[in-house]
Amino acid sequence: MYQAIILGSLLFITLYILKRKREPELTMPPLVSYKFPIIGHTFDFFLNPEKFLKQCREEYGDIFCLYIWGQVRVFVGIEIARKEHFGEVYSRDDVFDVLKAFNKRFPIDVLCPDLLKVSPVAPKTLKDTIFSKLKLYSDRMQKRVYLSTQKHFGDCDESKIFYNLFEIVTKIISDPIANIIIGEEESQHEEVLNSFANFIIDSMIFLTIPPFLDIIYPGLQEYVNRIQIRLGLYNPAVKHRKPLLKHIEKQVCKRLQEKEKYGDSWKRPDDHLQDLMEEHDPNNISCPYLLDRIYLIIFASIHTTAIAITNVILSLASRPEYMQELYEEQLKVHKETNVNGIIPFEALSDMKKLDSFIRETLRLSVNVAGIDHLVKKDYTFSNGLQIPKNCITSIYIDDVYRDEPKSFEPFRHLDINVASKVTKNFLTFGNGKHTCPGRQLAVNNIKFFMHNVILKYNFRTVSSKIEESRGTGFTALPVETSTAGVIFEKRV
Ligand code: HEM
């Protein structure tokens, strides 16, 4: 027993020393000093990143390194960002990779092994297909948002308290997204909606548990996560991919047969599944491949949009003083434009106050440091500072807004009128070459959702206080894990 402990400790110390020795001799940004070896800055960062990063910046400038979870990470601050390095991180995709960094925390490669292979083609196809048809999809998405909201929130004749908003919103938003991705027919099946929503909900554990094991040896947490999946101890993908594949196969088969049968008079379904099918020879369509393409969209769209909507609800529930003003705007839009309860696509741009409120919420709910990129090869910034391959860079986003950055001013973006517009001081959707191509789809869905709930309900936080939604550390994701209650009651 004692021998095993001694041997284990020797092995650990050897590995630790070897690891440290292997670290290359580059002119890296300054490493912030720390007291405790191995632990480094982990707890300072984890417990209060906002305060801690501010101190680091004051002492070390706008680009510095921290030793967190057993690894050195580079924080690229916004002042530097505005000049050159930020542009470098966002534009040099031969060096900085968002998806690879995400894959370290969230083992996509073992959950859905071919998904990373299809990722490079996705943004372009999405732009040419879904994102250029937002107007065409507007009515049916809106309808699905309203029906699904009714299903999950109900009438609220008596006031109801919801403590698990993120989960409910994930289910609501899965409905319109499934509708335009897999089509009207298959998205009616509860099984399909569950696959869209629950895969993300069940996979959250990989993002919410801090990488404690990395303190023992960098990468150990990632290794253990992957082993669990490979051994089948916990694999949410198996459960959710199978039913979705079954529905894709059914639909592909049906469409091919009907097209063959009806020829030119066949009515082409308008959805992304059809777009994807048309990329291939009809005799050579691989349904598992289509499933991976669809999973990529599930990854990119559902979790992100659900977080954003949850934040907007929490933000308004925390500040009921803005409810009346937003209600009046939505009522006007509704009265002037609705046909059978559905508003036209163009009416989205009449929701100026709501748009600004959404943008302000998104601005203030990004993590203080985030948009992690994995460095694919040693890199020298244009100021001469260097970072090694396999290092993670995080953008230090805090205070990106110059004018009263911490203050929530819901109508400060009225002149912009497009919550999805990317500017240097609004980084929720990234920046540069890989700026989120789905941002308008996301904002449209948020607006449809908020238009409906503002008209139907009054809502406020149970605590009657402001429920903070800002992300902290690398792993604490307050909105997903939040138990902040919100009271909904029918508007009379
Ligand atoms: C509020 C919701 C959303 C947020 C906050 C968000 C945020 C982001 C961010 C920060 C990036 C990385 C940008 C970069 O590398 O600099 C990104 C990329 C991406 N997003 Fe979104 N996103 C959202 C919704 C969506 C939706 C609805 C879709 C639809 C499918 C989508 C599809 C994508 C894709 C395909 C990429 C990769 C782009 C590329 O690599 O060129 N996103 N998103």
Give short descriptive properties of this protein.
492 residues, alpha+beta, Cytochrome p450, five-stranded mixed sheet, three-stranded antiparallel sheet, 20 helices, 53% helix, globular
Report on the architecture of this protein.
With 492 residues, the chain is of the alpha+beta class. It has a single domain, classed as Cytochrome p450. Helix content is 53%, strand content 9%. It has helices at residues 2-22, 42-47, 49-60, 78-83, 85-91, 98-105, 108-111, 115-118, 122-128, 134-153, 165-182, 190-208, 220-230, 236-262, 272-277, 287-318, 323-337, 352-365, 439-456, 478-481, and strands at 63-68, 71-77, 96-97, 160-162, 369-375, 379-380, 386-387, 392-396, 457-461, 486-490. It has a 5-stranded mixed β-sheet with strand order 1-2-8-5-3, sandwiched between helices. A 3-stranded antiparallel β-sheet has the order 4-10-9. A two-stranded antiparallel ribbon has the order 6-7. The chain is globular. 40% of the residues are buried. Bound molecules: protoporphyrin IX containing FE. Protoporphyrin IX containing FE (HEM) binds at residues 90, 98, 122-123, 126, 297, 300-301, 304-305, 308, 371, 428-431, 434-439, 441-442. One of its GO terms (molecular function) is monooxygenase activity. Keywords: Heme, Iron, Metal-binding, Methyltransferase, Monooxygenase, Oxidoreductase, Transferase.
